[in-house]
Specification:
9-stranded mixed sheet, single chain, 378 residues, 9 strands, 13 helices
């Protein structure tokens, strides 16, 4: 009978292992390692993410039950204490570097014209019981900051900080794609950063605070009964905090729009030419990154941390994002399952079964139906 790899094996084959090996060597991740290599650690973490394990004990028991199939995966059985030590001590740069490499690999062949590229920027909070993540007397947590491409339905950049870090702080060090459109919310109000994006030729779509002054220089007509209430061009306040001159001196455009709940939003953009409806539609696309955050939290169980040290938390978050990219890449190899959530669930229940990814919905092939046997019977 023809050999068939497990679903997990097929998913792991999408990883650029050459890049991973270089990252391991560059950061000396396997220096003086006697038992659990960084590759085996990654395999164990991805197994936990894809099968929905919420504890180190579940990963340990699950891998032990599939002991005979781990060799071909590059993995091995592991005790929870050994995995916990690896998560606490291995350099997180290996995992973040692999995430970046997978993003580039997934985007290969999907390049669009720069002017059509939309990047959504936002963050989500994750509760955690650890002193290093404490930001008040009774609350601890971290933030996952993401730049998300809604057209490809995947993150292209991610960073983890403690929950008391303002969103704009990591945004300032995010890589900028010149000419792309960036959509973000009030938490990213920083006129100096806006000016840098504008100088890079990027289109900005965000919200103005209710009390943010705008010196109007022109006003455009809008439909009397539409959702767009006004469309005006003006200049932001000349001075910012501490009386410093505002670095953003170029004219901006304010589009006031009434949303379904009746709330009026003051949208701001440096695009003075696009229709007001297009600006409103771009800002509305922010809901897609919210759906991504919900998907990762609910499907990959990122809310259940396997360790509480800063290094272990960062590694687990990166492993979750790597699992997400791998699932999206694996889904692209088949056409039967269109829903990412349904595909993730199908992979979960078939993870260690020997079945091709492109035929997860097909009934299992009986052993007697091999070509050789069918020929003999004929």
């Amino acid at each position: 009978m023809q050999h068939q790899n497990s679903v997990f094996h097929s998913v792991l084959k999408l990883i650029p292992w050459g890049v991973f090996d270089r990252l391991v060597a560059e950061h000396a991740a396997d220096h003086r390692v006697r038992h659990l290599t960084t590759k085996a650690q990654l395999v164990a973490l991805l197994y936990g993410q894809l099968c929905g394990a919420v504890s180190l004990r579940e990963i340990e028991i699950g891998l032990s039950s599939h002991r005979g199939r781990l060799y071909h995966l590059g993995g091995r059985t592991v005790s929870r204490s050994t995995l916990a030590d690896a998560n606490a001590k291995r350099p997180v740069e290996v995992f973040s570097g692999l995430f970046s490499a997978l993003v580039q690999q997934a985007n290969r062949g999907l390049r669009r014209a720069i002017g059509e590229t939309v990047h959504l920027i936002d963050s989500t909070g994750l509760k955690l019981s650890a002193e290093w993540a404490r930001f008040s007397t009774d609350c601890c947590g971290v933030k996952l900051h993401v730049v998300y491409n809604p057209d490809d339905d995947q993150p292209i950049y991610a960073a983890v900080t403690t929950a008391n870090v303002n969103d704009i702080t990591p945004a300032k060090v995010m890589p900028v794609v010149a000419g792309a459109t960036y959509v973000f919310d009030l938490g990213y109000t920083d006129y100096g950063w806006w000016a840098a994006l504008d100088q890079a030729g990027c289109r900005i779509v965000s919200r103005l605070k209710r009390n943010a002054p705008l010196a109007i220089v022109a006003e455009r007509p809008v439909a009397a009964d539409g959702a767009i209430l006004s469309d005006r061009i003006g200049h932001l306040n000349r001075r910012i905090g501490g009386g410093k001159p505002n670095p953003y001196t170029a004219p901006v455009r304010e589009v006031r729009v009434r949303i379904d709940t009746g709330k009026v939003l003051r949208l701001v953009t440096n695009d003075l030419d696009a229709p007001a409806d297009e600006i409103a539609a771009l800002y509305k696309r922010r809901w897609q990154i919210e759906l991504f955050f919900r998907w990762v939290k609910q499907t990959l169980k990122i809310k259940h941390f396997l360790g509480t040290s800063e290094n272990a938390v960062r590694i687990q978050i990166m492993a979750a994002l790597i699992a997400y990219i791998l699932l999206r890449m694996a889904q692209a190899t088949q056409t039967a399952i269109a829903s990412p959530l349904a595909f993730a669930r199908i992979v979960r229940v078939n993870l260690m079964h020997r079945r091709p990814v492109h035929a997860l919905l097909a009934p299992p092939r009986p052993p007697s139906a091999t070509p050789q046997l069918a020929l003999q019977l004929a």
